[in-house]
Amino acid sequence: MVITTLFPHRLRRIGWILFIPGVVLGTFYLITDFEWPWLTFTIPSLSDSEAFLTNEPVESGPRWRVENLTNEFICLLILIGSMFVAFSKEKQEDEFHVHLRLSALVWAVYVNAAIQVLAILFIYGIRFYLFMATNLFLTMILFVIRYHLNLRKYKALLNAE
Amino acid sequence: MLNKIKLVRTMLQMTQQDLAEKVSVSRQSIIAIESGKYIPSTVLALKLAKELGSKVEDLFDLEAGD
Known about the structure:
The complex is a heterodimer of chains A (161) and B (66).
Chain A: H1 11-32, E1 40-45, E2 48-49, E3 59-60, E4 63-68, H2 70-86, H3 95-122, H4 126-156
Antiparallel strand pairs in A: 1-4, 2-3
Helix pairs in contact in A: 1-2, 2-4, 3-4
Chain B: E1 2-3, H1 5-11, H2 16-22, H3 27-34, H4 42-51, H5 56-59, E2 60-61
Antiparallel strand pairs in B: 1-2
Helix pairs in contact in B: 2-3
């Protein structure tokens, strides 16, 4: 069985070009909270709240707002990059790659769930929300790492015969 | 699942790459199948048997616990 809904193989390289800088910038963003001023725009917002983690009823519906998009830009780099890296076809895609993908995906979901359980039990306050924000990408990151490590293991055997 | 693919393939003096090309899969797949790390689908098992001139049941055998 070959999955037909995968991206073309050529998008794999583009995926790495987006994904690696995304992860590096994301880590840097979490540490320093930096912003690029040139990424400040007036954008439409479907829903937002200025009152974060308070009981104040300051909710707002659709409106225009001035927003620095540095974190949104980094999130999109990681998300789109990881999708291309994870779900681009191999040069010669076959059922073994489907098997590797499925195994890696199940592993990533289990590990992510275990990490979430630990976070729910041991992380509180604003740090929990920070964790959940980074957790948006953790399953994909774990999947990419696991799949490519397994793939590399079999590639290393190619010179064995 | 035990298999004799490597044995039969080497008897036929066929490389992994030759066999992979004949059944339209990657060499990685042949390596994984020969080492028992991956059990092929019925379609691939039938293709392998055809290219190796064997019957599927001669190439693959159940282990205790399968």
